[in-house]
Amino acid sequence: QVQLVESGGGVLQPGGSLRLSCTVTENIFSFSVMAWYRQAPGKERGLVASIAGGGNIHYADPVKGRVSIARNSAKNPLYLQLSSLKPADTAEYYCFGHRGMGYWGQGTQVNVSS
């Protein structure tokens, strides 16, 4: 059974940076796309970054220039790095993978606060 498990969230200061990891029970290169989404309280879940099977990467406008998504090998986690953190980055961050159907992780909370 496919499982995605996020880690790396927590309370962070404005201006800081974070690195989230998504550990997947399957070869991450077998997914047609892997992505990070986030959902702030009272808002809809939205895309942060995605990487397609062929390697094409897309970043959402609110985080462009300070975000990076990476997958290094089949068994290594999917990573999300986000710098110059703002309070607006506060959200539950979710890992997503599509392989025939969509799979979601349980989420990891990121709270940017001074």
Task: Please tell me about this protein's structure.
There is one protein chain. With 114 residues, this protein is mostly beta strands. It is built from no helices and 11 strands. Strands 2, 4, 5, 6, 9, 10 and 11 form a 7-stranded mixed beta sheet that branches. Strands 1-3-8-7 form a 4-stranded antiparallel beta sheet, with no helix packed on it. A hairpin with a 4-residue loop joins strand 5 and strand 6. The chain is globular and about 40 Å long.
Reading the helices and strands in chain order gives EEEEEEEEEEE
Shape: globular
What's the helix count?
0
Report strand %.
over 45%
C-alpha end-to-end distance = 40 Å
* Largest beta-sheet details: 7 strands, mixed
The assembly state of the depicted protein chains is: single chain
How many beta-strand segments? 11
Classify the secondary structure makeup into a structural class: mainly beta
Overall pLDDT confidence: 95
Would you identify the regions where 5 or more consecutive residues have pLDDT less than 50?
none
Binned, the helix content reads under 10%
Short overview:
With 114 residues, the protein is mainly β.
Record the SSE blueprint:
Blueprint: E1 4-7, E2 10-12, E3 18-24, E4 33-39, E5 46-52, E6 57-59, E7 67-71, E8 78-82, E9 91-98, E10 102-104, E11 108-112
Parallel strand pairs: 2-11
Antiparallel strand pairs: 1-3, 3-8, 4-5, 4-9, 5-6, 7-8, 9-10, 9-11
